[in-house]
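Lecture notes, unit on protein representations.

Consider one protein chain, 184 amino acids long.
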Amino acid sequence: MNMADGAKEEKLKRISESIRAFPDFPTKGILFRDICPILKDPKSLAAVIDLFEEYVRQNHQDVGMIVGLDARGFLFGPLLAQRLGIGFALVRKRGKLPGPTVSVAYDLEYGKAEAEIQEDAVAPGQKVLLIDDLLATGGTLNAACELMKKQQAHVLGCLVVVEMKGLNGADKLKPHTVFSLVQY
């Protein structure tokens, strides 16, 4: 599947126009980028999955699992995994998954958190792509990369709908690459 440049630009424009900005949310000084309108519009949602699918098929044919981050990675990840004919695994906040899990602690702007995955969700050596809605400082995606390392999975890269370039989250994820559809 190779999209013509015109079709790709049209899809990116539709996605960009679907993202709303809310100043001072969740706290003063933050400009929140809201992806909910993408989910309300089937064409916008299809555009996101189409563009992710094209990127993965061109760059990561050997991917074996899509790993989504709590919670908005769960919205895009299963759709992409289904299109690719592969599985989907969840990285959740600690205490939300049943059975044996593996966890990693990480720092947030306002404290600490822990992310976890079920022990058997990914296999050692399995090639995975991580997916989330937005990359800001990179803390959560970096924690997910650490979880994959603990599980001896091979991270091929990270996919996000929105990347906040000014916060340099991609730097925290190196050597892993970040593919983003919209950048601010």
